[in-house]
């Protein structure tokens, strides 16, 4: 939808004077080529030059979608950076509330919201994706969205599929690059925002609110440019988890405290259960500081440095629905509901959590941008968990006493993080208009996980760490070399051929769980593997307004440290590590047709992906131990086939009316698997988790005049499952995954040259939908912005 996929931008390579203007000024995502410029209709390979530079390679052999800062401000109620992706074809971010820092996973065509390691998110080329693990669970690994704020975004580039050799196999789903602002003259900005969400579910009926303030400034004086951004968020989210008891687990009789207030519902397997209260409801305070410096050294050489600091303070608090005969809330002990007694409530049902996080990001680069025969870049980044602590009451420590102290745990991830180093070059043997443009590079990425969970016997809210409950960690490293040649081998034809060679290693892995039976204290052996991934794309200018394309690429997604060594169970657990997990191996292909409609672009893409050894948590039978064992395991083969249709129009039907829409059909089926969920073979032929067969987006924006603009957006996702055996047949409940249809609206007005205001409603139709947790219900937002 915000789009110019592969088409027609080779002409921009011939015009470095025109390109910056098109890049920054063209409505919607049409920065790659102007709809009305016939010179831009050629060959179907996007050439990225000019303007605020992207970190993407100069030649992009696949579908590309883009949204600019102006479009975000006009059309989207954006409180977090991931909101900019709301209406992209086939993309979904599992954002549960404003400031969601531990579950906001990016989903793409053939990768669900449990597969965070199958997409790549960058900010100005600095890695934000967290490849220390995959998905959510005891440890959560979403991209570090908080290191980018909506106010600093210049545009967002999204590249689909593993078709560029410049990226590791984690790009199998999509590559997202946030290009942030660098000023050309002095500028200053300020913004205040407010969101209100009336929320009604089960026995919760309350209004949850969020406040945001931000300020930024920058300047370019001579060869030096700088930009600094501050953002503060305070958010109170809706309940996310719930304490429950299956009706079948109750014993008929009078034992236990008689209580009222339980809500009779059905779980995701359609079995009756009682919802007893909320388990997690986050109050979050976040602060973000980003400082960027750039210095032009002459001859097209630029040095740049980025410092980002993100702090998060959050508390998770439960609320019991249960009341005894005196009307008091019940949080502990055995309870009796409708003549059935149930096992005692514990601190695990109504957990309290306090989290304190400080993450620091550094980025340093030296690059040339001459568009001559040769350009090069050296870039390095560091992401550091300077502080990462989570405190929680123990299962035996229940409310109300747990609110003021008692036993618990403290989980410390300090010292965790990753670093990247890349040396890249672009060689144009015959100049920018020549038949060959060759990208190549060497990359070295390293990831270190350290996660120590300790018991606290005194006061969980403030005491230091005691005995070790679990201690997991290790390192992985990926060293790569790639080369990619964009070759215009005949009039109207172009091909992009490339390969990526990767050497992966896992070292220093350890798992310590003293409370397990038997106790676990293992130092895992090192591993090394190497693969080569070929890439190929071909485009043909079939007609003056039509481009046909084909792309094929192999992707190797290596196991993360968390998948290899990150078991965090603390008692007689059957969850064990498998340090010999095989990497995921995917072949992905696309066939696309793109037609220029003068003021619009229509794209139809057929896509297919065949993945061997997908990594999922499941069960197998261990004959040596004579028991079932749950762990991250390889699923033999998953096959995905689908079609994506995307339309992007500027000034459609009348001047000022922009229309964007997409529809995606994906059939993703498990073909081979030695593991199971309940019985052997129960996953064969089932849908891959968290992949909906049908998805659709639409966004209509209208600029009434120079002051007023409005937009209406809609998103749809069909039925999907969370489990490998698709046994979660009821999606409209806690732990279910439901279909949804939401409508969003936004009105923006420029009050004067500097001041603007906006009012928005997300989920206007108040759809109540789920992805394990409940999504937000109808939310009202207001913002006031000042630009100098």
Description:
The protein is mainly beta and 788 residues long. It has one domain (10-240, 281-317, 352-787): TonB-dependent receptor, beta-barrel domain (Maltoporin, Chain A, Beta Barrel), CATH 2.40.170.20. Helix content is 3%, strand content 54%. It is built from 4 helices and 43 strands. The strands form 7 sheets. The protein has a 24-stranded antiparallel beta sheet that branches. It has a 5-stranded mixed beta sheet with strand order 3-8-9-6-7. Strands 13, 16, 17 and 20 form a 4-stranded antiparallel beta sheet that branches. A hairpin with a 2-residue loop joins β28 (468-490) and β29. 51% of the residues are buried. The model is unreliable at 3-41 and 569-574 (pLDDT under 50).
- Quaternary status: single chain
Task: Indicate how many domains the architecture comprises.
Answer: 1
Strand content: over 45%
Give the overall shape: globular
Which fold name is given in CATH as the topology?
Maltoporin, Chain A
- CATH class division: Mainly Beta
Distance between the termini: 31 Å
The helical percent reads: under 10%
Q: Any idea what the CATH superfamily is called?
A: TonB-dependent receptor, beta-barrel domain
Indicate the mean pLDDT.
89
